[in-house]
Amino acid sequence: MAPDSQLPRPAWSADIAVEPGSDLWVFGYGSLMWNPEFPFVERHAATLPGYHRSFCVASHRYRGTPERPGLVLGLDRGGSCRGMVFRVAAADVPATLDCLWDREMINRVYRPKLLQVRLRDGRSVEGLEAVRACCFVVDRDHPQYCRGLDEAAVVCRIGGCCGERGPNIDYLANTVRHLDDLGIRDDRLARLLTLALEQIRTADG
């Protein structure tokens, strides 16, 4: 058997330091909240300070095309973000990180960071009111990062773009619906949905 130093290192090991044999917390702010695709032993409503949920990532494939890129969500600097945090048992951490890197890091538009998140559901974890969790923050130097889009530009792109997984508006509507199901109200996204639907109705005459 090859010594540990000669074994292939997992893709995530270059991006995030995880203590061997330790549980891992993962923060979800979009589809990870309702479709995590990894095993977890508990979850809590949580708030990540210092970042907000934003349509700041260009989608050239799933919700748009290279000629007409759509927009998908990222965690961008400023404000705060309500989401869900999941505890992954130590035995499942390597496979979970493999899954997350395959899902979130294909284009490396995100920078994974271990950040402090506050629990919101009235419970505590071993007496703690906050935990350090893996968070996928947008890389502002990445070509797919959309800097400085105003509300009108975001609405125009969401209302008018479509990719392999369907219209961009469906992505927004699905996100708002699932957030509502989880009891998380995001007024910014709800307003974008209203405006984008109005744009589509106007275009349809």
TrEMBL record:
<dbReference type="Pfam" id="PF04752">
    <property type="entry name" value="ChaC"/>
</dbReference>
<dbReference type="InterPro" id="IPR013024">
    <property type="entry name" value="GGCT-like"/>
</dbReference>
<keyword id="KW-0456">Lyase</keyword>
<dbReference type="GO" id="GO:0061928">
    <property type="term" value="F:glutathione specific gamma-glutamylcyclotransferase activity"/>
</dbReference>
<protein>
    <recommendedName>
        <fullName>glutathione-specific gamma-glutamylcyclotransferase</fullName>
        <ecNumber>4.3.2.7</ecNumber>
    </recommendedName>
</protein>
<dbReference type="InterPro" id="IPR036568">
    <property type="entry name" value="GGCT-like_sf"/>
</dbReference>
<dbReference type="GO" id="GO:0005737">
    <property type="term" value="C:cytoplasm"/>
</dbReference>
<dbReference type="GO" id="GO:0006751">
    <property type="term" value="P:glutathione catabolic process"/>
</dbReference>
<dbReference type="InterPro" id="IPR006840">
    <property type="entry name" value="ChaC"/>
</dbReference>
